[in-house]
Automatic annotation (TrEMBL):
E.C. no: 6.3.5.2
GO cellular component terms attached to this protein's record: cytosol
N-terminal signal peptide: none
Binding site for ATP: 240-246
Species per Swiss-Prot/TrEMBL record: Ambispora leptoticha
Function: Catalyzes the conversion of xanthine monophosphate (XMP) to GMP in the presence of glutamine and ATP through an adenyl-XMP intermediate.
Lineage, uppermost ranks: Eukaryota, Fungi, Fungi incertae sedis, Mucoromycota, Glomeromycotina
Protein name: GMP synthase [glutamine-hydrolyzing]
Keywords in alphabetical order: ATP-binding, Glutamine amidotransferase, GMP biosynthesis, Ligase, Nucleotide-binding, Purine biosynthesis
């Protein structure tokens, strides 16, 4: 892996709340909720050694976990966290881990709680600092629980600040040390006031500055990029017109102007008019120094006779790397004359979920999703990576795009796979098949937009099937191909449901495709969910 940029640390710019992850399925939601309050936070595995931390967190949150604290192989926090002197909040397992470290007692309980519960907030008149976690909250509040263990004895010097009908120690606090524990999950929306509680912790108790906004991120990130790249350095990056690479490219353009070189590869399997549209949007409208490399013939030649989708992906990925490297070398040559430095950096649109995915405490795997690193590009190129979005979630990237002046249409664009239409043509990819698939996809997306449904659908496309069916047109028998329409609802693309289109929309789309596209006499709608199907065919 090439080295990461580390010139200016994000932690020197924003107060940071550290979330230590014990493997709960909700851990990343804690991060989301806190960022929504305008406070920067980061998640690390619970095994993080405090002496190896290269920043001083303003506060620490211990997440939930599928383990029980008394399990042989239970994940353990570095006890040094309790000596850092910053406020700590334990959530569910986190509460139990705090108690475990303070000689409290945790046992499996007879009355496990899964789902809604009523938490009675207990205010303490003599220990006012303990009340700060539930500041502005009173009486009984709805919370969401998911636990089978509970405290049956308070650790020394802790007091109860909340209970439910079955958990006498559902919320506890240590006043002097500012350590808090809650048995419920404030990060899920089923705890309606959860966000207030997290905000009370990070702002009221940790006193973290709420300065994490995309406006402030832009200024700071631009300054950071300038410092990394230096006054003459140059950066290359592959852009596809997808939201991540476009936002990253726009940020680079703001930071170093034309010393950023964006490359769009026209591989012959992009959507109809896509390259022209991207060139207009990125080049003309956003002023990004963009070159479009027209290499459709090269790609289509290499795809001749190939029907296996994985082979198609490989061929496209490898050819892509070849083209990109050749183009980067050309740019290096062309700009040698001026006083620019050599190209040293490669821009990548890596997002925070990809980073989180690679830091699981169950054994950090350094694999960031492979399709995010354009094939094996990085190993060969010896360029250093620059990843301006690596701290951001997808919705933050969209927000950032908005502040940077990107069109709504671009910001909400459906994802489009790198191998594009080649994997949406089942069977051999020929120029004729590309033309049919493109035309069908174009009509489909156009009609979805007209019906006002584009934003409701996470991804939609038309696939061209390699089978022929009988039809009748103008009293004549036809024997032509089939178009399959796919549209899914999903937030993470890991699981997905097919979209329930209104019938009249489907009817209209089908009519148009059959009437307007020669070679197609049938349209079907894919009603398979993922799993067991995938989104692409
Ligand atoms: N035709 C292309 N020309 C240049 N770069 C490309 C092309 N297709 C893909 N890439 C590069 O590969 C990366 C990964 O592609 P991917 O489709 O996963 O993400 P994206 O295009 O940025 O966003 P989205 O997921 O919204 O499509 C892109 O960010 C871009 O750097
Ligand atoms: O860049 C890419 N290269 C690929 O080879 C590829 N295959 C699938 N996808 C996209 O990934 C998401 C999940 O798709 P699947 O359910 O088909 O795996 C969907 O968004 C797909 O479009 C790809 N993206
Ligand atoms: N959600 C959790 O953190 C659960 C913690 C522990 N496994 C329990 O059942 O109590
Ligand atoms: Mg894409």
């Amino acid at each position: 892996m090439p080295s990461q940029d580390k010139a200016v640390d994000v932690h020197s710019l924003y107060d940071t709340i550290l979330i230590l992850d014990f493997g709960s399925q909700y851990s990343h939601l804690i991060t989301r909720r806190i960022r929504e309050s305008g406070v920067y936070c980061e998640m690390l595995p619970c095994t993080q050694k405090i002496s190896d931390l290269h920043f001083n967190p303003k506060g620490i949150i211990l997440s939930g976990s599928p383990y029980s604290v008394y399990d042989q192989d239970a994940p353990r926090v570095d006890p040094a966290v309790f000596k850092l002197g910053v406020p700590i909040l334990g959530i569910c397992y986190g509460l139990q881990e705090i108690a475990w470290n303070h000689n409290g007692s945790i046992v499996p309980c007879d009355c496990r709680e899964y789902g809604h519960a009523l938490l009675s907030i207990l205010k303490n008149q003599d220990h006012l600092l303990m009340n700060k976690l539930f500041e502005n909250l009173e009486g009984d509040i709805q919370v969401w629980m998911s636990h089978g263990d509970q405290l049956d004895k308070l650790p020394a010097d802790f007091r109860v600040i909340g209970k439910t009908s079955t958990s006498p120690y559902a919320a506890i606090a240590h006043e002097e040390k500012q350590i808090f524990g809650i048995q419920f999950h404030p990060e899920v929306t089923h705890t309606p006031l959860g966000k207030e509680i997290l905000r009370n912790f990070v702002i009221g108790i940790c006193r973290a500055q709420a300065n994490w906004t995309m406006e402030s991120f832009i200024d700071k990130e631009i300054a950071r990029i300038r410092q990394i790249v230096g006054p003459n350095g140059q950066v290359v990056g592959a852009v596809s017109g997808g939201v991540d690479s476009t936002v990253a490219a726009k940020l680079m353009k703001e930071a170093i102007g034309n010393r950023f070189h964006a490359i769009l590869v026209d591989n012959g399997v992009m959507r109809l008019n896509e390259c022209e549209t991207v060139k207009k949007q990125l080049g003309d409208h956003l002023g990004i120094n963009l070159r479009v490399v027209q290499v459709s013939d090269l790609f289509l030649n290499r795809l001749k006779g190939i029907t296996d989708p994985e082979k198609k992906r490989k061929i496209i990925g490898n050819t892509f790397i070849e083209v990109f490297e050749a183009e980067a070398a050309k740019i290096d040559q062309e700009t040698k004359e001026g006083n620019h430095g050599e190209i040293q950096y490669l821009l990548q649109g890596t997002l925070y979920p990809d980073v989180i995915e690679s830091i699981s405490f169950k054994g950090p795997s350094a694999t960031i999703k492979t399709h995010h690193n354009v094939g094996g590009l990085l190993e060969n190129m010896k360029l250093k990576l620059i990843e301006p979005l690596r701290e951001l979630f997808k919705d933050e990237v969209r927000e950032l795009g908005k502040v940077l002046g990107l069109d709504e249409e671009l910001i909400w664009r459906h994802p489009f796979p790198g191998p594009g239409i080649a994997i949406r043509i089942l069977g051999e990819v020929t120029p004729e098949q590309v033309a049919i698939a493109r035309a069908a996809d174009h009509i489909y997306i156009e009609e979805i937009k007209k019906a006002g449904l584009y934003r409701k659908i996470a991804q939609a496309y038309a696939a061209l099937l390699p089978v022929k069916a009988v039809g009748v047109m103008g009293d004549k028998r036809t024997y032509e191909q089939v178009i399959a329409l796919r549209a899914v609802e999903t937030s993470d693309f890991m699981t997905a449901d097919w979209y329930p289109f209104p019938y009249d929309v489907l009817k209209h789309i089908s009519n148009r495709i059959i009437n307007e596209i020669k070679g197609v006499n049938r349209v079907v709608y894919d009603i398979s969910s993922k799993p067991p199907a995938t989104i692409e065919w």
